[in-house]
Design goal:
Blueprint (H helix, E strand, L loop, with lengths): L40 E2 L5 E3 L2 E2 H8 L3 E5 H15 L3 E6 L6 H10 L2 E4 L2 H9 L7 E3 L6 H10 L3 E4 L2 H13 L4 E8 L3 E3 L2 E3 L10 E2 L4 H11 L3 E7 L3 E2 L5 H21 L5 E3 L17 H18 L6 E4 L3 H4 L3 E12 L5 E5 L8 H5 L6 E2 L8 E7 L8 E9 L7 E5 L20 E5 L2 E6 L4 H7 L3
Parallel strand pairs: 4-23, 5-6, 5-16, 6-7, 7-8, 8-9, 9-12, 9-13, 10-14, 13-15, 15-16, 18-20
Antiparallel strand pairs: 1-2, 2-3, 4-17, 10-11, 17-18, 17-22, 19-22, 20-21, 23-24
The structure holds pyridoxal-5'-phosphate.
The site of pyridoxal-5'-phosphate has 17 residues, from helix 10.
Length: 463
């Protein structure tokens, strides 16, 4: 669409970025269901509500910034994954996306398993009652203590990431008189990101053992020999924010190829394969994620077809969605502090948080959308950049977005799809306390992770 074609016209048309922000949306007050949690809507006064609670009430009760999470949406998504894969497969929620004890309880109740990748995540999972046999321990450099705790607790599997770790876990398990169920994480030479995947040279990374050069086959050989280990399967995780299933297709083909080689060499058919996580969500209206049932159908078909071709029994499949479950269920609620128009450029909108509560924009150039949520507005759209309060010019929350031209200090704005990798990656930069996670359900709100206080920060400072 040509830029001169917008009747409403952004204020700074000469610097419009390419891509989906090249035109303002037809109605800035509309909330695209793709990017907002399921129960988000506007009430008759134009105020956005979630779980039946309006954002002004949430800001008043809990302060801003705050992560606001829709519990029924989280449960619905978790259940959709569980149902899509059925009893013949396992769904492990990737705890690193966002973990708290409430989340662990929801997962437990909805029949999901849980991936952890540190002692802290393991402690959270166990303290909230997740049965150990439904927990998987990940990581490329698990400490001896972490491995020991996991083996003692009886975790369902440890995913081995290196030759040294194969020996380390075997040794620890044996010294505890146990046989630990393990998978070996391999890199299949496929890396997928967003809409593309690349099938060359991506063994060049810290995770996993390369399939290339026979390394993965050698790892299997060693693991099968060790009494402390019960090798149950092969693990592959190819990337994140993936929309295109063809990367999984190549990965499954190569993992099954290894299973076949293992059967031919050792006479064993490993019973499980884990295809990892990485399924994409909509951060902006331009993204079109797949539904869990489509993903389940595609993955199951690929694995079944590959196994039939290799004359192998189809192994039990597991997947590890993190972002796809929690990402869309939350938004970050901010109060606008300053609005600074820069002539001929854009308008900088400063909020009361920033890179300390959402590092993804600075870290990965992530795209987000944003909306005025405390009222509606008929003002013409302005091209805005939503920035935080930190001492970095890269402290950007939303790089390019249209907001109503009458936006003013005191307005509440919200950034949707911040449920994954925002609170879990939050920092105390500039000694800004981390925001709370507020859950809304059935017309009520409650805090599941409280706001950090200055006292919390000072408590650690013991000098
Ligand atoms: C990060 C990660 C996941 C989850 O990725 P999402 O993009 O949140 O779905 C799953 N498995 C492994 C091994 C990971 O490292």
């Amino acid at each position: 669409m040509s830029r001169s074609a917008h009747p409403a016209g952004p204020r700074h048309a000469d610097v419009l970025p390419e891509g989906h922000y090249s035109a303002p949306p037809a109605d800035l007050n509309a909330l695209d269901a793709k990017v907002w949690a399921q129960t988000v809507t506007r009430d008759e006064h134009g105020v956005v509500t979630v779980g039946g609670v309006d954002v002004k009430a949430l800001a008043e009760e809990h302060g801003t910034p705050a992560y606001v999470l829709d519990e029924s949406d989280f449960r619905a998504r978790a259940r959709a994954w569980r149902t899509a894969f059925g009893a013949g497969a396992d769904v492990f929620y990737a705890g690193k996306a966002f973990l708290s004890r409430a989340v662990v309880r929801w997962l437990h109740e909805e029949g999901l398993n849980l991936d952890v990748c540190s002692g802290g995540e393991l402690a959270t999972a166990l303290s909230a009652g997740m049965p150990a046999d439904r927990i998987a321990l990940h990581g490329n450099n698990k400490s001896t203590q972490e491995i020991e705790r996991a083996v003692r607790a009886g975790v369902g599997r440890i995913v081995l990431d290196s030759f040294q770790e194969i020996v380390r876990v075997a040794h620890i398990a044996q010294s505890l008189g146990k046989r630990q169920r393990v998978q070996i994480r391999i890199t299949v030479g496929v890396e997928a990101h967003t809409h593309e995947f690349i099938a060359t040279a991506h063994e060049d990374q810290k995770f996993g053992i390369p399939l290339a050069g026979g390394q993965a086959a050698e790892a299997v050989r060693r693991a099968l020999k060790l009494d402390g280990l019960e090798l149950i399967g092969i693990h592959s995780h190819i990337g994140s924010q993936i929309f295109d299933m063809s990367g999984f297709e190549v990965a499954a083909h190569r993992v099954v190829g290894l299973l076949k080689a293992i059967r031919d060499e050792h006479g064993v058919e490993l019973p499980e394969i884990d295809l990892g996580g990485g399924l994409g969500i909509a951060y902006t209206s331009a993204d079109d994620p797949r539904e869990p049932h489509e993903i389940a159908k595609a993955l199951t078909e690929i694995v079944t077809r590959e196994c039939e071709a290799a004359r192998l029994r189809t192994p039990r499949i597991s997947v590890e969605p993190g972002r796809a479950i929690v990402g869309p269920t939350a938004f970050t609620l901010y109060e606008v502090g300053t609005v600074k128009p820069l002539d001929g450029l854009r308008t900088y909108v400063s909020v009361d948080g920033g890179m300390s509560d959402n590092i993804r924009t600075a870290l990965y150039d992530a795209e987000y959308s944003v909306a005025l949520v405390s009222r509606t507005s008929d003002a013409a759209p302005m091209l805005a950049r939503v920035v935080g309060k930190h001492c970095e010019s890269g402290d950007i929350v939303v790089k390019d977005a249209f907001l109503p031209g009458d936006l003013a200090p005191g307005d509440l704005i919200a950034v949707p799809a911040t449920g994954a990798y925002c609170r879990s990656m939050a920092s105390n930069y500039n000694h800004v306390p981390r925001p709370p996670v507020v859950v809304v359900a059935d017309g009520a709100s409650r805090v599941i992770v409280r706001r950090e206080t200055e006292e919390d920060l000072l408590r650690l400072d013991v000098g």
